[in-house]
Design goal:
The chain is mainly alpha-helical and 232 residues long. The protein folds into 2 domains: 96 residues, Arc Repressor Mutant, subunit A (Orthogonal Bundle), CATH 1.10.10.10; 129 residues, Four Helix Bundle (Hemerythrin (Met), subunit A), CATH 1.20.120. 66% of the residues lie in helices and 3% in strands. The protein has 11 helices and 2 strands; from the N terminus they run ααααββααααααα. A two-stranded antiparallel sheet has the order 1-2. A hairpin with a 5-residue loop joins strand 1 and strand 2. Bound molecules: zinc ion. The site of zinc ion has 6 residues, from helix 8 and helix 10.
Amino acid sequence: MVNAAGKFGPYGGGDARVLPGRGPTGAELVRSRIALRVRLKSVAPGDRLPDAGVLGEELGIGEITVRRALEGMCQDGLLDRRRGRSGGTFVAADWDTVVSAMHDPAQAASLDAFHLLLECGLVAHGAGEVPAGRLDGLHTLVEEMNVADDGARLAELEARFHLDLAEALGGTEIREFAADLLGRQCLLRPAPPPAVVREQNRYHAELLTELGRGALDPAVRAVKSHHQVRGS
Ligand SMILES: [Zn+2]
C-alpha cells in the first residue's frame, strides 16, 4: 500500500511549521498514527506498542526515524519505555491527561477547515459515480452510532466513518491523507462528546442518502452542516 510517507516524502527536515495538507515528517507521522490508533481503540493506554521495526514497516518509514519519534513521545509523556524482559514501549497509562495538556484549539480549527474542504472535494469528485454497495460499510457505521452509548465507542466510530468515507470516495491514498488529519486532531482537541457525535450522525446519514442518489448540492450541504456541529 502506498501511504502518506511514500506519497509525500522525503522526510527528516526540522521544519516545525505544519501546514494543513503538507505531507508529515516521519516523526509527525508516527505521532499522528499512534494517536489515531488510540482513538480507534486498536491500542489502549498501558498497552505495549509493536517494535520500532514493525511500526516502521507499517508506516513505510525507517526504523531509526521511528525510534527517534518514539523517544520524543516518551519525553512528552505520551509513551513509557520499560526495560527488562517484559520491557518495550508502552502507551502512557495517563494518555488522556497528557494529551489534554497539548490541546491547541487554533490549530485544531485550521485542520478542521482543511478537512471540510477535503470532504467537500471528495463528495464533488464522487457524486454520481459511487457504485452500488460502496457505501454499505458507511451505512453500517451510522447504524452502530445510532445505538452506541459509550463515549469512547462513539468517538471511535466517528473517526472510522471519516476514514472509510475518504477511502470510499478517494481510494486508499486519500484514506492515508485523512488518517493524517484525524490523527493530528486527536492530539489537538478532546474527542467529540456523545451528544455531538449523535447530532453529526444525522448528517452522516443525510450525506449517504444524497450520495446514493447522486445529488451533489445536498451532499455538500450535509458535509458543511456536519462540520458546523463540530465547531459549535
Ligand atoms: Zn462525523
